[in-house]
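Protocol step 4 of 6: structure prediction from sequence.
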Amino acid sequence: MLNLDPNTLRKIFLYLIPTKPYPTNEVPFDLFACALVCSSWHRVAYPLLDDIIEYENFRELFYNNPYGSEERARLAEIFAESRRSGLYYHRVIERVFISTNYLGDRRTVRALAAIVKLIPPNLSRLSFDLQLTTPATTALLNTLLISLTQPINQNLTHLHFDGDAGGPKNHRHLAQLISALSPYLHSIKLSNYTIELATINALSSCLHLRELDLDHVEDAHQLPHTPPWPELRIFRYAQTQRAGPNRTVVSLGSSCPQLESFTFEADSTTILPAINDVSLAALLAGALRLKRVRLARVGYVDYNFLADILIPKGSQLEHIDLEGCIGIDSFVTPCGEQRLWPTLRSLSLDGCRRVGPGCVRKIVAACPGIELLTLPEHLVDVDQREMGMCEFLKLNKVWRRVGRTGAVQSEVEPPQQMAGEQRRGVKGVWAKVKRMLN
């Protein structure tokens, strides 16, 4: 069989091709297995595989659960054989999605563990969907979590738990996975998750953590009062109705000297903010490298908050997002100052329905370095001259300053250049504008 000539092999392999049109997630397993027999078979089968397989589907493996239990097991075998044969298929994997929705049998558990233990060189992210659990799936999940730590894949730097896995009583093995990966983790996201002591201890061991995203977690106020993450750069908190991590936020500036981005989101301005304005003032005063702040739908963000806290204490900020903060109706420059934020490059006021044209005009005048401005919907059709935005081009609600290379430049070109453009016609002008936008 190994000595069949290429033409004969190709005729045989054609019988293993599924009928067109090929489904998006189609994997011709028999043809794939033939491609891994030896190098000569691979040379014949590879062009046929290339026409069928969307290799991008392997990049984020099992996203939206496109495969059954048997298919997942066969994929694990194919990736293992790929590695043994010195081929590249297992190298495509960058993220593996693991869901309790399809943890129905031990065969799937073994397949998932086998893929992660192959240590694909580009696999850096594990995402767990833990929202739907039963006693049976919880037991299988724990078996999988234990196997993932023996041995550990040191390439894993990003971890995401979405869901509570049936409650804190089932968090022990999740926390153990965090602890096992702690020397290598750079990013952790917890969504709809209840923080308890085992998770807190595991998080505290992640000394190289650069990003912490807490999306509607419960009991976040139990986080360490002095954050033990000296390399943390990004902190995001989307609140629930429970108490927020105020004491942690206060200490972020001093304990996390590399912090560059802070996000606090509420579901509505009618909800009492879980992080208070005093904590934010302490953060802004202490985080000397902070460049990006997002405060979304926070009820106390108004004229007074801007005048007393965000403008005087956030002078180093480059990107500010105040989406849905309906209390904002005006901006005022600090006494004796001509500028709001001297280094500001982008500002989002999307959903700030009390902001008017005069307010925008003051922002543009007081922030000469601003390059990107997102305005609320009610200002979409306002004359840009009324808002002082003659140097900006609009795309929906986003206004981008054109012709900027760092220093303040006027969009109006010198007369001789304008005359040249007119000679080339209107098409030339718009072609240049499109190039600028691109």
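Step 5 (inspection) to follow. Residues 239 and 427 are 50 Å apart (CA to CA).
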